[in-house]
């Protein structure tokens, strides 16, 4: 896995590799409109990577349907995301960024009562993610899903 901060770039460099919406969200901590993201209702088995630097961030096995309008995960790949206190917009929230490039992903909310192993909701912008389908992951996911139903 990429070490923390190993994929940092200047704003000018990011502008060159990201589209306008990706730059607004990943680098300027924007938020996509709810229910518009391409991964909001998406449940293929595979791995979600950082749209900016390609580092794997979330597995499809931790994605769940929260109904909030953005892709939701109950856990990240260990070490892949960093949490920061965010006091913007008159509230205290936990911002999450990609550990490798510092790109803004979204926020983590805790204790909402979702029936997940962590009771956390990583609310992530689809724009901040890419998806890579993984056949091995698919087989594993089928196995894990079988276990969860017990
Ligand atoms: Zn990244």
From TrEMBL:
It catalyses: L-methionyl-[protein] + [thioredoxin]-disulfide + H2O = L-methionyl-(R)-S-oxide-[protein] + [thioredoxin]-dithiol. PROSITE patterns: MSRB. SUPFAM superfamilies: Mss4-like. GO terms for biological process: protein repair; response to oxidative stress. It comes from the Eukaryota. Keywords: Metal-binding, Oxidoreductase, Zinc. Its cofactor is Zn(2+). The keyword Metal-binding applies. It is an enzyme of class 1 (oxidoreductase). The keyword Zinc applies. Its EC number is 1.8.4.12. Binds 1 zinc ion per subunit. GO terms for molecular function: metal ion binding; peptide-methionine (R)-S-oxide reductase activity. Signal peptide: none annotated. Residues 11-134 form the MsrB domain. Gene3D superfamilies: Peptide methionine sulfoxide reductase (2.170.150.20). Belongs to the MsrB Met sulfoxide reductase family. PANTHER family: PEPTIDE METHIONINE SULFOXIDE REDUCTASE 2 (PTHR46081:SF8). This is Peptide-methionine (R)-S-oxide reductase. It comes from Calocera cornea HHB12733.
